[in-house]
Amino acid sequence: MTYQSTIRFLLNGQEKTVSSVKATLTLLDYLRLEERLTGTKEGCAEGDCGACTVMVGRLQNGALHYETVNACIRFLASLNGCHIVTIEHLAGPKGRLHPVQQAMVDFHGSQCGFCTPGFVMSLYALWMENPQPSAHEVETAIQGNLCRCTGYEPIVKAAMAVNQYGTPAHDYLNTERATVTAQLTALAQTTRIETGPEDDRAILPIDVADFATVLAENPKATIVAGSTDVGLWVTKFMRPISPVVFITHLDELKFIKMTDDALTIGAGVTYSESQSAIRQAFPHLGEYWDRIAGWQVRNMGTIGGNIANGSPIGDTPPVLIALGAEVTLHSTKGYRALPLEDFFVEYGKQDRNEGEFVASIRIPRASASQIDAAYKISKRRDEDISSVAAGLSVSVEDGIITDARIAFGGMAATPKRATAAEAVLVGQPWSAEVFDAAAKSLAEDFSPLTDWRASAEYRLLVAGNLLRRFHLEHDTASDVPARLAIA
Amino acid sequence: MKDLQAVKGAAHQNLKHDSAVKQVQGRADYTDDIAEPIGTLHAYLGVSTVTHGKILSMDLSRVRQAPGVVTVLTAEDVPGVNDVSPTGRHDEPVFPTEKVEYHGQPMFAVIAETRDAARRAAELADVEYEVLPHALDPVAAEKAGMPLVTDPLKLERGDVEAGFDAATHRISGQMIVGGQDHMYLEGHIAFAIPGEDDDVIVHCSTQHPSEAQHMVAHVLGVPNNAVVVNVRRMGGGFGGKESQMNLFCAVAALGAKKLNRPVKIRPDRDQDMTATGKRHDFVIDYDLGFDDEGRIQVVDSQFAARCGYSSDLSGPVTDRALFHADNAYYYPNVRLTSRPQKTNTVSNTAFRGFGGPQGAVAAERMIEEIAFALGKDPLEIRKANFYGDETDGRNVTPYHQTVEDNVIGRIVDELEDSADYQERRKAILEHNAKGGVIRRGIALTPVKFGISFTATWFNQAGALVHVYNDGSIHLNHGGTEMGQGLNTKIAQVVAEAFQVDFDRIKITKTTTEKVPNTSATAASSGADLNGLAALDAVEQIKARLVAFAVESRGVSEDAVEFRPNHLRIGDETIAFDTFIKEAYMARVQLSAAGFYKTPKIHWDRASGTGRPFYYYAYGASCSEVAIDTLTGEYRIERTDILHDVGRSLNPILDKGQVEGAFVQGMGWLTTEELWWDDAGRLRTHAPSTYKIPLASDRPRVFNVDLADWSENREMTIKRSKAVGEPPFVLGVSVLEALSMAVASVGDYRTCPRLEAPATPERVLMAVERLRAQG
């Protein structure tokens, strides 16, 4: 069997073919060191500062979609058939500045300028998607971009004014859409891709069946979807990860299926791609979803990855466990489904056999009596890892709590249900006293750790207070605001 | 004479940053963007894995054998002096030989064909240590009997003992104020290219090219004239690149000279944050007496700082904490002492404000203490304690400098009015009185900030101005550009002086070849010092042009006038470039070196008296916050600022400095937390763990104004005032507003003593403390 051994893509409109691409070669190093496109900067090499923001266009079921990513933790090998657009490619008509660039200049959005190309790329993506954003929408779009000089005010003002300088319809990425779509269609892989040296090998299966085969052949392979965590294994810890199976391009893992009784999401669906379905099916998760990392990471990271990774501080597991989600694993041997909470066995260990991969997540729709909430507590409100994350799903019938599913992240070695607190609630009347008792019982459920995000004492206290908040904000007798408004 | 348009881009105009267009295009080059010559190698530091220990043996054979490694540098490779201490105390080795004193301390450098190879090899050292006990914070270090890193300072005025005897009320307490990482977006980097003989050129990202030059020469054992240091621009500095680049410059130069190949060193973000200094954390013990009106009668405070393992700039930083321990308040009897404590942490360094903000925040804590004790609005206490003037005699600082330019009363009155402070405070009190989960707070805090380096000799600057024979102008000065718009401002000064359009002037990289013996671009002094040096150069050239006009036209000096892009010489009007060409043909020297030194200042550290500051900059901010008393989460609802920059050289750039400084100051006091584990490892060493403000953290309403009526009383450049550091202190209003919101839980009877940074955790814990008191 001969496989494709090159990675082919468009870089700023130009076709590139790169052979023997190391699995761990980041897009940022490729741009800066091999193409000498130095407008894209390295600020942190961990996807937290946004100085390396570039745009990636990809065909998904035939449609071309552009989104921002952190080039520092994106691997070049994952970009076959994509269009990479960097700051150097932005231009306005007749060689003038691009509307985003001109707005940034006119509103004095740059001081030292090092973060500026990244901001320009994020604002470019925002303008393409939402030409007249509110201040809150701008803030959400630049959660993944740090600026240490300006205090952001001029950048937000520039972002809100971009549309006065030009409309997206006239932008290159729109006017050239048909051409680029044709070019990318021609670059799409037609066989499995295997590239890179033996000790740093990248494999891109042609479809899900092939993915299962690849895993059967390479049971120790590192599976990489969004690379928002594995990227750091490479850039921060220099950990060997070969062979790597890249799955971002597998459309079969990108399905979203909404039925009357459940929302089912393919493991390859990103946070951004799932956002509207999540908001529709589970309105309480809308605001929570916007607080998962920054926009670039939401464009890259997948729910499947967040689960498969097994971190005790992932954002999605607690809220999905509370909703009673079920995870489906796939291998050459077939499918296996289990409750999500059972997937997390202990720290660093999940119920995933060799050759298996996370295929999809099924989240049952809420019953009429169910009240749902999702809370995230972090040192900084946005783009921070939670010190405590909580999902609560409580059913109340005739003033009596009939069911309670409460799961926490950041409180134990795995995302975990608060079974003692749940037991305190079930069968009791909906009242402040009952929730207070449940809050107190959390000490039986959890002995959290102290680290740089929060002390054990704070974690336990705030977890209890989140139960009190839950009662307060869903109590019809109370009209006192139980938490700060976001926008 | 035809009507001439005013020149474009003269002083006092709103002009965009001179690199803005390049920056938005990604075409502004930083050190890492410079094209590398063939043969360029990459260095990486190998660091200690214990917090305090004697080095028993260091086996680097695995490092040397790693793929791609060319050489390893250790202390044995240092031909000159193995030291990069900026104050000459010889307490900061490039590579230690006997002991390591903090976790992550550089011990050697690997040089390899690629940065990746060097990084991987740097992990392979086999070092044996005898582990010694360590102390991380100033309290533990004092208890452990660790020495001070430098001499402490004492400021004293009046009679403290008599003051306490006569005091109506007395309160003592302690405040812990955390440090801060600079988190400049561009980290440290140096790129050395060897030349012939002893020569080496170092491109780097330092705020202090002359010091880097001298340090490289010192380490290489060559005269300063063998070393050239170049800085085109920095991706942020904030003080973090004042002395901290010395090590990286020295390592790159050592490698380049040893191998005769270009060597670049760029630590990753984690190493940048663990191996370079930060803002000093302080533990402040205060004791104060005050009367029934809340007027301070006496203050006795000690400022202990986490200095780290070496002195670096800790002496002047802790000195400046004392210089600002009065913030804007008159202390009739006062004693302030510093305790620059050695600790087993990275050596702390300059950071915007240079100890001043830590001094000022302690003053504001004392104001709070008085307000809560007397049940008054803290603003009333602030006003009662502001410096006065010669009429009331309440105008002498703890260091015996007379405050001559006090405008804090007017600034605060205007802001109180424009921010509608009284009405909003009333509404907030009513809101909080209803109880509930969400509590609100408001605070209006002042700043008075002394301008000049307290090391008097640093208050000098040079500039070099060339007028080419086509009338284009090339300008160099000793200052460095880190985003603040210094080059833009100085070019505006030159444009105005020559009466030519701004775009005729080109400023290129700062280089030790053009202007020697410069001071750091620090202490907010960049425009003050370098602007007047550039003006001096321009005036010399202008004088020669006038003399030439007088001689060639036979007119008097009065008849020669620099008009926009022209000269008027008697009845003749001649374009600037035409006249320049003529002057060149007549062999007039069209280049000049300018110089400036700040007048009036003097400082006697031993007696703690003098006039360390040429003048003061003032400002005030008013912040309103809401806190969630179940979680400690908060939001800044609104901030209003009125800040004094004298007669601004460029109001829009100054406004950018004020806004940025406020948000950075707010970050220091809210979410930016440095956290060490018990083993002595800093665990917050990248943006994933160290949280600077985001756009969504800035105030929901943000009104920033410059005091347009202000003019510097002193003869500064165009009567402007320095702007870099003073507005950083404005972030204090956020901490004070949070404190008020917390205090509402205890009905404002108790000062919450909220420590900084006031993370959601600290806010909730303070709420819990007040709740527990009932």
Number of helices of chain B: 19
Task: Name the overall outline of chain A.
Answer: globular
Major sheet strand order of chain A: 2-1-5-3-4
Q: How would you sum up the major sheet of chain A? A: 5 strands, mixed
User: What fraction of residues of chain A sit in β-strands?
Assistant: 15-25%
Mean pLDDT of chain B: 97
Structural class of chain B: alpha+beta
Helix content of chain A: 25-40%
Could you tell me the radius of gyration of chain B in angstroms? 27 Å
**Describe the biggest sheet of chain B?**
8 strands, mixed
Strand order of the largest sheet of chain B: 3-5-1-12-9-10-11-20
* Largest protein interface, residues of each chain: A-B, 85 and 84 residues
Please give a structural write-up.
The complex is a heterodimer of chains A (487) and B (774). In chain A, the strands form 5 sheets. A 5-stranded mixed beta sheet of chain A has the order 2-1-5-3-4. A 5-stranded antiparallel beta sheet of chain A has the order 10-11-16-12-13. Chain A is built from 18 helices and 20 strands. Chain A has helices at 27-34, 99-106, 116-129, 135-141, 153-161, 172-175, 177-187, 208-217, 230-235, 271-281, 286-290, 295-300, 303-308, 316-322, 340-343, 419-425, 432-445, 456-474; strands at residues 6-11, 14-19, 53-60, 63-70, 83-85, 193-195, 202-204, 222-224, 244-246, 256-258, 262-266, 326-331, 334-339, 344-346, 349-350, 357-364, 370-377, 388-397, 400-409, 416-417. In chain A, helix 2 (99-106) packs across helix 5. Chain A has 487 residues and is of the alpha+beta class. Chain B is an alpha+beta fold and 774 residues long. Chain B contains 19 helices and 29 strands. An 8-stranded mixed beta sheet of chain B has the order 3-5-1-12-9-10-11-20. In chain B, strands 7-15-14-13-8 form a 5-stranded mixed beta sheet, with helices on both faces. Chain B has a 4-stranded mixed beta sheet with strand order 16-27-28-29, sandwiched between helices. Chain B is globular. Chains A and B meet through helix 2, helix 3, helix 4, helix 5 and helix 18 of A and helix 1, helix 17 and helix 19 of B.
